[in-house]
TrEMBL record:
It holds the Pfam family Phage_holin_4_2. This is Phage holin family protein. The keyword Transmembrane helix applies. It comes from Massilia frigida. The lineage of its organism: Bacteria, Pseudomonadati, Pseudomonadota, Betaproteobacteria, Burkholderiales. Keywords: Membrane, Transmembrane, Transmembrane helix.
Length: 117
């Protein structure tokens, strides 16, 4: 149940982005649900490999290169999913940060610490 609620929270966070940035477009809730699912899978499966492969650059940049990785993955998912569009890298960079903040805030408000929802 918690996993489904987290997925819905992430979809709502994606739906909120076009209201904050005109360079991000989400056509409907279905596109947001699919994009949230794909973003979750990409962040679970591909992101750790990329972080490991770019570890020297990440260490030299004091961890800031992880923001670039997040932006590239966000942009890649937007290019894969119909109904979810980001106009460019810098838009993806800012949108990935906003998406994380919105998702974190909603999760903090809606999910309880003890694992029960």
């Amino acid at each position: 149940m918690r996993l489904l609620l987290t997925w819905l929270i992430n979809a709502v966070a994606l739906c909120a982005l076009p209201f904050l940035m005109s360079s991000v477009q989400v056509t409907n809730l279905g596109a947001a649900l699919v994009a949230a699912l794909v973003l979750g899978l990409v962040n679970t499966l591909i992101r750790p490999v990329l972080v490991l492969l770019t570890l020297p650059v990440t260490l030299l940049s004091m961890g800031l290169f992880i923001l670039v990785i997040n932006a590239l993955l966000f942009w890649a998912v937007a290019n894969l999913i119909d109904g979810f569009q980001v106009s460019g890298f810098w838009s993806a960079f800012i949108a990935a940060i906003l998406y994380s903040i919105i998702s974190w805030a909603l999760s903090t408000l809606l999910l309880k610490k003890d694992g029960k929802s």
